[in-house]
Amino acid sequence: MRRRFYLYAVLVAAAIAASASVAEAQNYPWCAQYSGRGGGAMNCGFTSFAQCMATIQGAGGFCIANTLYQPPSKGSAPAHRSRKHSHKGS
Length: 90
Description:
The protein is an alpha+beta fold.
Protein backbone atom coordinates (compact mmCIF):
# COMPACT_ATOMS: atom_id res chain seq x y z
CA MET A 1 0.00 0.00 0.00
CA ARG A 2 2.79 2.41 0.92
CA ARG A 3 4.64 1.68 -2.33
CA ARG A 4 1.49 2.49 -4.31
CA PHE A 5 1.23 5.85 -2.49
CA TYR A 6 4.84 6.74 -3.37
CA LEU A 7 4.31 5.76 -6.98
CA TYR A 8 1.17 7.91 -7.10
CA ALA A 9 3.03 10.84 -5.54
CA VAL A 10 5.85 10.55 -8.09
CA LEU A 11 3.42 10.36 -10.98
CA VAL A 12 1.48 13.40 -9.75
CA ALA A 13 4.71 15.37 -9.40
CA ALA A 14 5.77 14.31 -12.89
CA ALA A 15 2.38 15.30 -14.32
CA ILE A 16 2.66 18.74 -12.74
CA ALA A 17 6.16 19.15 -14.13
CA ALA A 18 5.01 18.00 -17.57
CA SER A 19 2.21 20.58 -17.60
CA ALA A 20 4.76 23.41 -17.50
CA SER A 21 5.12 25.53 -20.61
CA VAL A 22 7.30 24.14 -23.39
CA ALA A 23 9.34 27.34 -23.22
CA GLU A 24 10.23 26.38 -19.66
CA ALA A 25 11.38 22.87 -20.55
CA GLN A 26 14.02 21.44 -18.27
CA ASN A 27 17.45 21.27 -19.79
CA TYR A 28 19.24 18.56 -17.85
CA PRO A 29 21.23 15.59 -19.16
CA TRP A 30 19.26 12.70 -17.54
CA CYS A 31 15.60 11.64 -17.72
CA ALA A 32 13.62 9.22 -15.55
CA GLN A 33 11.06 7.12 -17.43
CA TYR A 34 8.62 5.90 -14.80
CA SER A 35 6.76 2.60 -15.17
CA GLY A 36 3.00 2.63 -15.02
CA ARG A 37 -0.25 2.16 -16.83
CA GLY A 38 -0.30 3.88 -20.17
CA GLY A 39 3.48 4.14 -20.32
CA GLY A 40 4.11 6.14 -17.16
CA ALA A 41 5.68 9.59 -17.10
CA MET A 42 9.03 11.12 -17.94
CA ASN A 43 11.03 13.66 -15.93
CA CYS A 44 14.15 15.17 -17.50
CA GLY A 45 15.26 17.12 -14.45
CA PHE A 46 18.37 15.28 -13.33
CA THR A 47 21.96 16.49 -13.43
CA SER A 48 23.51 13.04 -12.99
CA PHE A 49 22.71 9.40 -13.64
CA ALA A 50 23.11 8.64 -9.90
CA GLN A 51 20.57 11.36 -9.00
CA CYS A 52 18.09 9.89 -11.48
CA MET A 53 18.60 6.34 -10.22
CA ALA A 54 18.11 7.42 -6.60
CA THR A 55 14.83 9.08 -7.55
CA ILE A 56 13.30 6.12 -9.36
CA GLN A 57 14.38 3.62 -6.71
CA GLY A 58 11.24 1.99 -5.36
CA ALA A 59 8.95 3.73 -7.88
CA GLY A 60 9.98 1.61 -10.84
CA GLY A 61 11.32 2.77 -14.14
CA PHE A 62 14.68 3.50 -15.68
CA CYS A 63 17.02 6.39 -16.50
CA ILE A 64 17.99 7.48 -20.00
CA ALA A 65 20.18 10.21 -21.44
CA ASN A 66 18.23 13.31 -22.49
CA THR A 67 18.78 13.48 -26.25
CA LEU A 68 17.53 17.09 -26.28
CA TYR A 69 20.01 18.28 -23.64
CA GLN A 70 22.11 21.24 -24.66
CA PRO A 71 24.76 22.41 -22.20
CA PRO A 72 24.56 26.14 -21.45
CA SER A 73 26.88 28.27 -23.52
CA LYS A 74 29.69 30.04 -21.74
CA GLY A 75 28.14 33.44 -22.46
CA SER A 76 24.73 32.58 -21.00
CA ALA A 77 25.81 31.78 -17.44
CA PRO A 78 26.56 34.69 -15.13
CA ALA A 79 30.18 35.02 -14.20
CA HIS A 80 30.98 34.04 -10.64
CA ARG A 81 33.08 36.53 -8.79
CA SER A 82 35.23 35.42 -5.96
CA ARG A 83 34.92 37.55 -2.88
CA LYS A 84 38.11 38.59 -1.26
CA HIS A 85 37.84 38.76 2.48
CA SER A 86 40.32 40.79 4.38
CA HIS A 87 41.24 39.33 7.71
CA LYS A 88 42.86 41.86 9.96
CA GLY A 89 45.38 40.43 12.34
CA SER A 90 45.15 41.23 16.06
